[in-house]
Structure formats: structure tokens, C-alpha cells
Amino acid sequence: MMRFALTLEWHGAAYMGYQRQSHGPSVQQALEDAVHSVTGETVAVHAAGRTDTGVHALGMRAHFDLSRSFDPFRMFEALNAHLRLAKHAVAVLNCIKVAEDWHARFSCVGRAYEYRIINRRAPLTLDLGKAWRIAKPLDEGAMHEAAQLLVGCHDFTTFRSVHCQSASPVKTLDRLDVRREGDRVIVEAAARSFLHHQVRSMVGCLALVGQGQWRVDQVAEALAAKDRSKLGLNAPPEGLYFVSATYPGE
Fold first, then answer.
1. Any idea which residues carry the catalytic annotation?
2. What is the CATH number of domain 110-246?
3. Over the stretch 155-187, which tens digit does the pLDDT of each residue have?
């Protein structure tokens, strides 16, 4: 058996998220169909994380097993050719052979996300479907100050989807930074793992702070409440990007 590790990029607008769904297209289905087309084998492609409908990826990691030997570079080329011909908005950035005990999800020790806000009155054209437009001016300094109240080990129930399947709402948020680049406000988040909707929920509340609708300390109050009904706002999915996954030894 050969285990292949993939690095993936995709535009999430066309998909119901990463995980295979019975009611719509998914990134996982696109990849599994591509592997079957190339090799004739039916495989399961496991990813480092499950993304929602409309969420994008810049460097998602995934893996699958093949019963026979296959050159990784040939696999890389063939998968991209199939995805391109099938008009999927998915690209394989890298394909390598890994040890049989390497697992895209369970071996992962860190995940990083980025959320992109475009802060301007004009509608989006080139970034339509790839960022959240907020017309009202944002105070990114206040947003960053509020973000630091969420860093560390906390019960993130307030920032957790009611559909979250995680065994515990307690997570350790390693980093949550906010910076501005012109009319772009970027929120960067890093942790070993995240709850369902956690990043979008945190960004939504930070946006309320940036617009002056919430005080900085209201973010801490929402966190302490451990109550989803205290969430101010859940940011839309189109601004969220899975950036990278970290593994021991890499």
C-alpha cells in the first residue's frame, strides 16, 4: 500500500464544504472521483479539517491510500488534469509519498485560518465571493485588542455552532491577530484545532467592536457567558480561508 499526502487549494463557492455530501458537490467527492479516474481504485481522501459551504483553502492537507505503486509526480499531474477537465475549482499543489501511519487529520498538531474583510463602501468585483465587505469604517486596533481576550485556553461555547460535533467546547487558541493592509482587514487565527464556526463567530464579534457597536470588553463578556445566544454575529463563510496544517517533523 502507498499513502499519498496532498496539499490542496480550492475556491469554496461551488462546494458544500470539504466533506462529501448527499445533497450537493463537495471537495472530497471531486478528489475521490479524480483518484478513481486516474487509478481505477475507490479511495477515501481524508483532510486535516472540514470546511463549511463557501469556505476556501490555500493549503489544506489530505491523504489517501492506493493498493499499488504510483509515482507521486505522475499522480500530481494526473489529478490536476482530471480536476481541470471536470471544471472543478480545486488544485493539487503538492503530492508526496508518506509513511502509512501519517494521517492528515489525526497527525496534525496545528491549523491556521485567515479571514479577509474588505472595508470600503464600493461593492466588490474582483473579490466577490472571496471576502466580506463591510462599508462602515473599522477600527482594526480595537479589533486586535479585543482579539487578545480570546487567546488562550477557554470554553468557547458562545463561539461554537449548535451543530458542532466536538466532544468538548474547551480549546486553546494560540493566536488571533488583526491587521490592516489598505482597505483590507485581515484576521489570522491559529490553534491545534477549532470548533465548528469558531473562527467565523470570533470574527463576527470582532467586526462589531471594529464598527463601534460593541465595547472591547464585551468580547470577554460573551466568552464568559458560555452561551451561544450571546454571540453578536457570525461572519459569512466567503471570507474564510484554511491556510495551513502543521505536522511533527515538518
1. 52
2. 3.30.70.660
3. 999 999 988 888 899 999 999 999 999 999 999
